[in-house]
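Sample A.
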Amino acid sequence: MAEYNIADSVDITDVTCPVTFVKAKVAIEELDDGDILEIRLNDGEPVQNVPRSLKEEGHRVLELTDNGDGTYRLIVQKVGD
């Protein structure tokens, strides 16, 4: 697992789709271009939809790791507006 300079992190395991993407989007919008966000999310719809949606927004998905407990660690780099 690579080491990243994480600017912020957000845990969205307590919400369901589509709120998961909304919370992730708000968190990444608060960062500066090039900053890296760590997101903890649940298996199922969140892990299928959040990385794809952030990528569609133009951000760079750097890593998606299974934590082995039904959650995932998603590392995303903000790409300029």
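Sample B.
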Amino acid sequence: MNCRTNCGVCCIAPSINTPFEGMPEGKPSGVKCIHLSENYECKIFNSPKRPQFCADFKAEEIVCGKNRKEALEILFQLENN
């Protein structure tokens, strides 16, 4: 599965517990990553500055659902379990 355009849920719902470029404390769940563009695209997608957590994330229907709303619900649920 390819990432949906204008989604960015994986850059909002999960927490990132390690420091990375521009977010030295990591990123709490539900907080938009500072590298997420207005179009919900990662501005550092192909950069070595991209957190390993993000590089390891793979878009799959089991976590992305059928649309952005479902993805948000699924990823928040996974984050809170």
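B remarks: The two ends are 24 Å apart (CA to CA). The first helix runs from residue 52 to 56.
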